[in-house]
Design a protein that fits this description.
nine-stranded antiparallel sheet; about 30% helix; alpha+beta; two-stranded antiparallel ribbon
Length: about 220
């Protein structure tokens, strides 16, 4: 009789222990599921962030490569100290030269390209400014568009320059170009953002041979 009563009770529902066990298993399954979803979401976000950063590096590097590679060696001002014609000016955080402005940025034609580093909150921004050049002078008030950042949120931006070298050996990199009348044989741009260093960009302006540093004046 007792056995039959016990069997009826078991067949009529779950025991408290069974309910608790099922609840624990359900909670564990839900936690595992949520953890999997969060991990998948975080992985997708990381992938999107990496892809976005790579695209930014590619776009900025290509823009700089085309602009620096297109410098023409045209005079844009007279050097205030020597009175020499200035075709290129370069320091560690700024660079100026003349190249044709792309049609999508304005009316085209020779424009002074002024690249510089500006404060951007706790970091830095790489900015570019364009002004028209006419008869060896930069026309003030002729900005093709307001100065704008090419890239922001950067840890550092550094420009370096070197001449043709001597005796078959490359010249050292300089952080200040000392020959305003000539174009450097190579320009290097180094950029670091919060995720790390970008690949070095090294560009050899094709016009450098026409407006190069005389061998006796090389670094």
């Amino acid at each position: 009789g007792r056995a039959m009563i016990h069997a009826r009770r078991r067949s009529s529902g779950f025991t408290l222990i069974e309910v608790l066990l099922a609840t624990v298993l359900l909670a564990a399954g839900l936690a595992l599921g949520f953890a999997t979803v969060r991990a998948a979401g975080a992985s997708a976000q990381r992938g999107e962030a990496i892809a976005e950063r790579n695209e930014r590096i590619r776009a900025v590097s290509e823009f700089l490569r085309r602009r620096i590679g297109g410098m023409q060696g045209l005079v844009f001002e007279l050097d205030p100290e020597s009175g020499e014609s200035r075709r290129f000016a370069g320091e560690a955080e700024s660079m100026r030269f003349v190249a044709d402005l792309p049609d999508y940025l304005g009316r085209g034609g020779p424009h002074l390209h002024a690249l510089g580093v500006a404060r951007d909150g706790d970091g830095f921004a790489l900015q570019v400014d364009f002004r028209m050049v006419l008869a060896g002078e930069t026309i003030e008030g002729s900005r093709a568009r307001p100065p704008e950042p090419l890239a922001d949120g950067l840890r550092s931006v550094e420009f370096a320059y070197r001449g043709p070298g001597k005796d078959g050996k490359p010249a050292p990199w300089l952080y200040e170009w000392e020959h305003p009348e000539a174009l450097p044989a190579q320009v290097r741009v180094r950029i670091v953002d919060a995720q790390g260093a970008w690949p070095d960009l090294v560009v050899a302006p094709p016009a450098a041979g026409s407006y190069g540093v005389p061998p006796e004046a090389g670094p």
